[in-house]
Amino acid sequence: MRAVIRRREFITLIGGAAAEWPLAVRAQASKRPLIAWLSSGRVPGSLVFVGAFLKGMREFGYIEGVNFDIAYRYADGHAERLAPLAEELVRLHPSVILVPASGPAVAAKNSTSTIPIVTPALADAVHLGLIASESRPGSNVTGIPPYVAGLPTK
Q1: What's the pTM?
Q2: Taking the chain, what is the end-to-end CA distance rounded to the nearest angstrom?
Q3: Which of 63, 72, 135, 138 registers the highest number of CB atoms within 10 A of its CB?
């Protein structure tokens, strides 16, 4: 049996698809990765680190607001604010949480076990419960330890 489609039905079908297509493309285009920035410090003190990070991203061809978005949260020197700020960031479903030090990493780790957490200064990670061991971290936290045991003696 052969299906026959009328001209008006065909035009309506194509017209409807054409009208919806730009909306779908715009929705996909605005879906940029979100980077969450969690700091225990204040905005002025963090500007050097944020600036260096954004400069590095630009060097790789990524521009804030074009290729990715950032949600910034600062505890302003109040450690007790880190946990609620981390939970707030997790609710935004970022692609990654960037923290400048171990203190905010602990708050972020306590808020999520699935979102990657990256820190350039991952001090005392095993003792703080951020990773299981240096050789087998086994968690969503990664970073660079500022001190590597045994390295100064070499």
Answers
A1: 0.74
A2: 82
A3: 72
> What φ, ψ does residue 141 adopt, rounded to 5°?
-105, 135
Query: What DSSP designation does 74 have?
Result: E
Q: What is the strand order of the sheet 69-74 is part of? A: 69-74, 34-39, 96-98, 117-119, 141-143
- Cβ atoms < 10 Å from Cβ of 86: 26
Which of left, alpha, beta for 67 (phi over 0: left; psi -120 to 50: alpha)?
alpha
pLDDT tens digits along 11-61: 555 655 555 555 444 445 558 999 999 999 998 888 888 999 999 999 999
CA diameter of the chain: 84
- Smallest Cα–Cα separation from 118: which of 137, 133, 91? 137
Residues with Cβ within 8 Å of residue 39, at least 6 apart in sequence = 46, 49, 72, 73, 74, 75, 99, 100, 104
